Amino acid sequence: MYLRLEKIVGLLCIVTIVAVIYIYMQMRIIDLGYKQRSRQEHIGKLREQNNHIVYTIARLKSASHLGHVMLTKDSQMQFVDCDKVFRVAVYNPSFNDSYIRRTASVRRDTSLFAKLLSLVSQTEAMAEE
Question: Where are the domains of the chain?
Fold first, then answer.
């Protein structure tokens, strides 16, 4: 009888330990689920902020916003006049290639310092000459 009681108590201890471990594992699973949900909410808020910032940057870089700012302030900037707009011919295979090579090989006499400080593009600079 005494031996049987020891087996029963030992079995009950093992069952209790297994039950405690099982409950602990279930609590950890639920805790990780709550942490995951809070992280997902935080990621959602960050994505919302990112979308708002991207939209604001795109709006500030848009041509209509820049034009509005340019026209409302007393700035020296101007829109391009019609007489300064150039039409560019599309490359035609029958066009003389030697002309293209000659114009490409023409060098401009500008220093490196002048090139770095230039505020106009090469096309605009060539048009002004």
Answer: 2-68, 86-128
